[in-house]
Amino acid sequence: MVDTRSKWEDELGRWLKPFLDRLGHKARRRMCPLYVSGLIGPGDRKSVQPMAARLAPGDYDQLHHFIADGVWDAAPLESELLVQGDRLVGGKDAVLVIDDTAMPKKGDRSVGVAPQYASSLGKTANCQTLVSLTLARGEVPVMVALRLFVPESWTSNPGRLKRAGVPVEYRAARTKPEIALAEIDRVMAAGMRFGCVLADAGYGLSAPFRQGLTTRGVAWAVGIPRHLKVYPVGVKLIWPVAGRGRPRKRHIPDILSRPAEDMLADAKWQNVSWRNGTKRRLEARFAAVRVRTADGPPQRIKDMGQQHLPGDEAWLIGEHRTSGEKKYYLANLPAKTNLRTLAATIKARWICEQAHQQLKEELGLDHFEGRSWQGLHRHALMTMIAYAFLQYRRLAQAGRKKKNQRSTTSAEHAGRAPSHRRSHRSTTTSAMPVLQKTNHEAKRHE
């Protein structure tokens, strides 16, 4: 009888070879597959001690040293993850989704832990927050970056940062959009292929973030709060007439900016369906108009105080969900883009939430029990590598299934009896749940 668990572990070993080649030392080359196997395999807890107890009881010290204290550089493995992620799902039709995910924690010593708003929990909680980048094509996501956001309660305390081993270059305060732009620079430098960057309103409300994407020549579609100001697309800059005093030296817009929800109040709304859900086609009412963003230089306009001048032209998109909820977005996609394409692009962002949940529930992203910056990021890196491997298996399985279907169809057209189709189910039941849509995704988006 074939040992199916050994079979998938052998496949993992082959797939990990490019990563192991970058690790160098033979002890690390042995610990890396062991750690990733522990994340993928069965077991409720995916922290070091229970994984070592299940897989290699005598190797706990080495496994702990590998992830928490070992002197090795994670950057080569992070670079290899970008290469493999691009190979799996990269392309012009791929999207790069920017988001963050919270991991609740007790106490105050784990690096970056603080009371902060956790979108996944819908409330403020004591947690760590990781900024994430997810490369996705179709409904196949691959997480390619996770970087800790360090709150002000940490950046203002040098001793605390030092005790947690935060590298000097990460000790200065950085916003989540700033972290995201730095990571986007890293993936672009690695040659990762994608057609559009997507983000929620937590990032979309940041004018420097949107402008940073535009400066990098990237197409983007982001959520915004309903009160974010925009100008009509036909706004013009005029010379104000001075009633008294010196002549004015700066142009002002001939129309004042308006909140996004007001700009769409009289727009034409249409029912749009963008993809199949788990139970039915997903649809909502959408409207879109061309606008100028109100994120130019600030300037006093008449008696209105400081106002931002018109910026770049973009799409303003509104969504009315069947639940009654209303959402608003900005996108710098071409002016000729149709409403269905705008809606489908915006809604492609859901895939990162599925990936976050799968990384936590199936691979133990939030199970790490150490306190250091190095240990947390190495554990996060191993979960992303494990996730990429499972997506590799998913795509390989789909490819084999399509090949068998074509072979069967050809045989039937040739007048032969249909051939027996072999089952290509996963060789490990523990690997399969991470490849399925989660109930959370269905509930949230359908």
Looking at this protein, list some descriptive labels:
disordered C terminus, two-stranded antiparallel sheet, 446 residues, twelve-stranded mixed sheet, 16 helices, alpha+beta
Characterise this structure.
The chain is an alpha+beta fold and 446 residues long. A hairpin with a 2-residue loop joins β3 (123-137) and β4 (140-149). α2 (17-23) runs antiparallel to α6. 40% of the residues lie in helices and 22% in strands.
By helix and strand content, what is the structural category?
alpha+beta
| Unreliable residue stretches | 410-434, 438-446
Tell me the total number of β-strands: 16
What is the beta-strand fraction?
15-25%
Largest sheet: 12 strands, mixed
Distance between the termini: 43 Å
Number of helices: 16
Average of the residue pLDDT scores: 87
Rg (CA only): 25 Å
Q: Which descriptor suits the 3D outline?
A: globular
Helix fraction by DSSP (H/I, runs of at least 4): 25-40%
Give the arrangement of secondary structure elements.
Blueprint: H1 4-15, H2 17-23, H3 26-40, H4 48-55, H5 60-69, H6 75-89, E1 95-104, E2 114-118, E3 123-137, E4 140-149, H7 152-155, H8 158-163, H9 176-189, E5 196-199, H10 201-204, H11 207-215, E6 220-224, E7 229-232, E8 237-238, E9 252-253, E10 258-259, H12 260-263, E11 270-276, E12 281-293, E13 298-300, E14 306-308, E15 313-320, E16 326-331, H13 339-347, H14 350-361, H15 373-413, H16 439-445
Helix pairs in contact: 2-6, 3-4, 3-15, 4-5, 6-15
